[in-house]
């Protein structure tokens, strides 16, 4: 059986994370992805590289693609792109708004040559507004969209980034792939191509949902009060710690997640517990043999010290968890229907029983680096299954193949290589 995007051809002009991650998702779905790189290779190839032109970062984001390096500032390279375009369905561009036009790969230029083209344009901040020409990476998106501040991690008085993953970048890659698939469906129905625009800004905002939702009746006045206070603190030169304290103060006055949605140290490891409903919280308390005043019918959060109650309950729970192993707790919570799981490191997951049982790891052969194990496709489809068919390409691995199919002779290709147009 073939993937859902079999016979779809994609030209990918992208670097780092969002665009390459989007292209890789389409490749897992069966699309033929040709990655256009600068002659020296995209920068992610050289970030912590373990051999020339190869890094774990690049390999992890570019499986299933073919590589041809092109110096797009050269007319000869642009001509190659235009010849490739005749047989292409989708173009992915991940750059500042002005870059595409400078290189002759903007939507207006390419769609004039191929009107039914799907063109996905990803920028940091969009094509309008005062920040439209600013470059941006995941760190900047976390900063300007409130992700970093609301994470509430502070070191030496400064907010710290979410560092376990490039959240805005990877999420935007998924949004790009989603938008491209929707545009392909629209084209199937109407015959018309279109431009799909995504931004790190929009994704980081969209993923915060309730945090950036204002219910006028209950949120408008306190939120405005916070914003006024924030302005005063900034004008006075107050440190970030003070701003964060004010932010926390204006949030919901009592929350029950201090005890019920957190991690605990067991006798041989750490376990996470996630109880997001009162039904689950009561089960959790029953398992531990604890009582919580906040569930009493006469409890009044306006008059009682909620923080003290929460801190006391968490401390009692913490002491109980120390007395048993992670596996013991998991077995008990499973019987009670309480969501829980052990804390693991990423290194453990390539051999994890649950991961392997669901075929979430693939093994591929890289042309230069050799065998590669990595996380495989993220979804399953019964009639058009996804598959990881090949590892990421070596730099220029497919130059001869791609140009040969465009009827360039071997002498022509060698001349382009000698002239620095490709390699």
Describe this entry's structure for a reader.
It is a single chain. The protein folds into three domains: 9-206 and 359-418, Rossmann fold; 214-250; 257-345, formyl-coa transferase, domain 3 (2-Layer Sandwich). It is built from 18 helices and 15 strands. With 423 residues, it is of the alpha/beta class. Helix content is 42%, strand content 16%. The strands form five sheets. Strands 5-2-1-6-7-10 form a six-stranded parallel sheet. A three-stranded antiparallel sheet has the order 11-12-13. It has a two-stranded antiparallel sheet with strand order 3-4. The model has no long low-confidence stretch (mean pLDDT 95). α8 crosses α9.
The CATH superfamily of the largest domain appears as: Crotonobetainyl-coa:carnitine coa-transferase, domain 1
Q: Overall pLDDT, averaged?
A: 95
What is the approximate shape?
globular
Q: State the helicity in percent bands.
A: 40-55%
What is the rounded distance between the termini? 35 Å
